[in-house]
Request: fold
Amino acid sequence: MTGAGAGPEGLAGAGGAGQPDEQPEDQTEKQTEKQTEDHEGYSGPAVLVLGGHEVRVEVDLRGFFQPIDGRYHWYGRIAADPRVTGLVEAGARTADLRTPAGSATGSLGDPDPWGRYRVAGTGAPPFTAA
Reply:
């Protein structure tokens, strides 16, 4: 009986079932690299116009063209700033974001554990996109 049970296990151990698990991992790494290359972005100073107030902030932004809906999607984080937190807590969620390369309107999400707000928008981004 031991010989009958060892056959299938021996095949799996010889790479029969182990190989397919390795291949998607390699493909995933290649896809991640490609997605990173496709994303454009900007990191640096910006002005956030939120609730009628202008606040100088630091941002880290990225974006990509989404072929499914045919629009450019941009997103990122605004560095923690007590003025931004106060304005968002007062109800402001839509903002204009200006960088040296341009401006765009986006919406602010909830803060992360470090107090940085997520900002996202569609259409022309507030940075140069190729």
